[in-house]
Every structure is written in structure tokens, then in C-alpha cells.
Amino acid sequence: MNHERAITASPRVLVVDDNPDVLAALRLLLKSAAYQVETFAVPQAALEALRAQPFDLVLMDLNYARDTTSGQEGRALLADIRSHDAALPVVAMTAWGSIELAVELMQHGLNDFVQKPWDNARLLATLQQQLRVGEAKRQALRAAQEISEQQAREWAAARQMQERLLPHSLPVIAGYDIAASWQPMQAVGGDWYDVVQLDDDHLAFGIGDVTGKGLPAALLMANLQALVKAREAVNISPAQLCAEINQALCRNIEAGKFVTLFYGVLNFRSRKLSYCNAGHNPPLLVRADNSVISLPTGGALLGAFAEWVYEQGEVTLQAGDRLFCYTDGVTEAVNSAGDEFGEDGLLNWILQQVPMSASALPQNLLSVIDDYQSGLFTPGLFTPKLFIDDATVLVLAVSE
């Protein structure tokens, strides 16, 4: 697509007509009016010239020697021109019997037409008008492209900023395998996770989901990340952390916005996990014998009920355990039949992954979700996967 050319004092016109007398007359007329002219008797040769060098306007016949009545060659030529350059002005020259065809083609990219035999003054006036229209369209397209490129740069910067809020690396704890994958629907999103070693005995981890998508969700996610970080530093319990964040969000976010959060503190020596689930998808603790424990204890989502009292759950991990934390972009994935992947689908998949290293599980699960939804959605600029919602997976496995 060529939107970069600006009109010069001597516009370049490509003329296509299979009548040599018509070509000679148009060449003489246009050169006398200070146009630069290239003439072609065959559409294919004209297309090759158009692809090889820039032109400001195309003046074309609709019927050619191979098909003198139906206008199929003219239709095809116009379609090829439009495929090459959507902004290039195209004016047709047509006999009386082809006027209906010209009118029809104005719905398919033809800018104007002039009837044969033509009036020189009218033809030149039509060309001048279409050159002005074409230049205005090119300027609009250039402006739109500049805006699009600027927005792309801004989205890329936002993506980089959000990625810096997520862990660059995860703690390495003897006897544990920890891995995570994060996939926003757009360039940025509202999912969050973190894993932090608090001291010589304790590991804190969390996963959260903010209402909405895109930049507004990303801003609220950044707020959540800051609130969690501030409270991790003073080493409070998961239930207290959720209560304090809930009160802060209720004071500061607009109505209808809220956050779900699962936050846990693991004593990695005793394997005792204390946690609070604030309205989040309950993580699934899969034992070595494939029995499953859900972790729902906690309370309401954050930012909705300021006085909510959060409960704290406890569970002791065992050798061979795998704890799957995830956001609803995983279970609410939809296939072409309209069926959700669901918690059952997630659990069935998990139970089939016994031989797989825990470090590979999060990314493999997101690939499964991508395949499940494949064909439904068009990938975005920063999101080659086909997600309809942000999706995040955090896995903590206990070694044998």
C-alpha cells in the first residue's frame, strides 16, 4: 500500500486504453496541461508499471480487446489497482453503453468517469478534482498511520512498564518447583501474580484479577501490586493483608470496579500454607495420589464491601503435591461450539500431566487454552495468542 506520495507540480498519470488513437490524443492533451503521462494498451502492463513506480492518478478504459462488452477486464484492473493502493484516484472513460457499468464500479473503488467522446475541459477539470480528493485521502491516511504508529509505541511502552511490575525471576527454594505464565488479552491487562521470599523460612505468593481489560484494568492492577508490596514488607497474615487492601480499594476505586485475589504465605520448611482467597478462582491442590483439594477460604472480592471480615485457611503440603493457581481467563475460555473449558476441563488436563515438569505446566496450559479457542478470534498487535480474557497460571510443586 502506497500512501506516501504527495502531488507535485506535474502530476504523474497512468493511462490505460486499447485504442492507440485514444492513447495518442490523451497523451497530447495531458502533456499540454503539464501532466507527466505513461500510456498502456494492456491492463497487465499498466499494473506492472503501477507496482514499479508511483503515480498520482489512473485514467482507464473499462472495455478491452479481449472483452469488449462485459467490462470484466476493467473490473479486474480496478480491483488490482485498489488492492495495490486504496487512495489512488481512478477515473474511467466509458462509451454510452458502459455508463451503467461505470456507475456500478463507483461502489467498488472507481472515483469518477468521463463519457467518450470526451470534452477536453471537462476531462481536465475531473482529473484536477480527483487529484485534490486523492491528495486529501492520502493526507488522512498518513495522519491515521502516524497516529496508529504513535499508539503502537505507547502500547509497547505500557506493556514494558506492566511487565516490570511482574517478577523477572522466581525464587529458587530447595524442595519446590515454582513457575508462572502471564498472557494479557491486549497489550496490557488486569491479571497479576507475584512470588517473593520473605525470609529464611517463608515464601509469599499471590495471583489476582482486576475487572475489565486493557489499560484501565492495567492501571488498577498496578495499584493492586503496590498495595500488596507495601504490606508484604511488614509481614502480615494473608487475611489481614486482604482486609487492608479491601479497605484501601473501597476508598479509592470507582463503583463497579473490583479485584479478586488469592494470597498465600508458605513456611517452606514445615510446608504449612496459610492463605486467604478474596473472591478468586479457588486454586486446586493436586496430591500425589491425584486427590484434589480446593482452596476457597477467605471472603468476598476486594473493593466491594469495606467492612468484610476475611477468614484464613491453612493446609499442609506434602511431597508430590502440585498447587495450581489461575485466573478466570483459563476456565472461561470458549471453543467454537460455545462450550467453556471450565474447572472440569482444567482438572482433567492437570491429572494427565503427572510426568510433566512443573516448570513447563503454566505455559503448556496456556497453549492448550489457545488451541481450545483457536479460530474464534483474531490475534492483536501484541497478543499472538487467541485469548478472550487475560489468563495467568501459577504452579507450585513440592518435590518428592
Task: Show the helix and strand layout.
Layout: E1 12-16, H1 20-32, E2 36-40, H2 43-52, E3 57-61, H3 72-84, E4 90-94, H4 99-105, E5 112-115, H5 120-165, E6 176-183, E7 191-197, E8 202-210, H6 214-232, H7 238-252, E9 259-267, E10 272-278, E11 284-286, E12 292-294, E13 298-299, E14 313-316, E15 322-326, H8 328-331, H9 342-351, H10 361-373, E16 391-398
Helix pairs in contact: 2-3, 6-7
Describe what is shown at a glance:
The chain has 400 residues and is α/β, with parallel strands linked by helices. It has helices spanning 20-32, 43-52, 72-84, 99-105, 120-165, 214-232, 238-252, 328-331, 342-351, 361-373, and strands at residues 12-16, 36-40, 57-61, 90-94, 112-115, 176-183, 191-197, 202-210, 259-267, 272-278, 284-286, 292-294, 298-299, 313-316, 322-326, 391-398. It has two domains: 12-143, Response regulator (Rossmann fold, 3-Layer(aba) Sandwich), CATH 3.40.50.2300; 166-398, 4-Layer Sandwich (Phosphatase 2c, domain 1).
- The CATH topology of the largest domain corresponds to Phosphatase 2c, domain 1
Largest sheet: 6 strands, mixed
Number of helices: 10
The amount of beta strand, in percent, is: 15-25%
Number of domains: 2
Gyration radius, to the nearest Å? Answer: 32 Å
| Range of helix content | 25-40%
- Mind telling me the CATH superfamily name of the largest domain? PPM-type phosphatase domain
Order of helices and strands: EHEHEHEHEHEEEHHEEEEEEEHHHE
| Strand segment tally | 16
Global shape: elongated
Q: Structural class, please?
A: alpha/beta
CATH architecture identity of the largest domain: 4-Layer Sandwich
Mean pLDDT: 86
* Terminal Cα span: 59 Å
Segments where pLDDT lies below 50 for 5+ residues?
Answer: 377-385
Under the CATH scheme, which class of the largest domain? Answer: Alpha Beta
